[in-house]
Amino acid sequence: MEYRKKIVLRFSSRTWDKPLVYRLAREFNLQFNILKAIILPRQEGLMVMELAGTEEDYHRGVEYLLSKGVSVEPIESDIMRDEEQCVHCGACTAVCPTGALHVDRESMEVLFDPERCVACELCLKTCPTRAMRASF
């Protein structure tokens, strides 16, 4: 059975130039889909990716990344919505490429599905009340 997870990798100024993602594919049989990357020479970097493979290979790959000094965080913890600030205007749904933000037609409320979120941050720029927040 395929195990699939979206994660955020944070590289230090010492790990930015290492072929770590290549090794995930080669040594741990993981497929990767890079959703967002900000990697600059000799600086801290960020990569949002989806990894797929067996659950055992996934965990071995994450342990490898951690052993190399890369911070690994699940994507769900990085994009959040402040329920009290959201006025359900729907502006965010117009820019969400994955449908993670969508309108429930019965209640006319905006729903947020963190599992579908790829942390593109378009909702952050669009939300008039700043209800959508990123922790990175």
Give the mean pLDDT. Answer: 89
Number of helices in the DSSP assignment: 4
Low-confidence segments, given as residue ranges, are none
Gyration radius, in Å: 17 Å
Q: What is the helix fraction of residues, given as a range?
A: 10-25%
The fourth-level CATH homologous superfamily of the largest domain is ACT domain
- Please give the number of β-strands: 8
With strands numbered from the N-terminus, the spatial order across the biggest sheet is 2-3-1-4
Structural class: alpha+beta
Percent range for β-strand residues: 25-35%
Main sheet characteristics:
4 strands, antiparallel
What is the approximate shape?
elongated
Task: State the CATH architecture of the largest domain.
Answer: 2-Layer Sandwich
Oligomer: single chain
CATH first level of the largest domain: Alpha Beta
| H/E topology pattern | EHEEHEEHEEHE
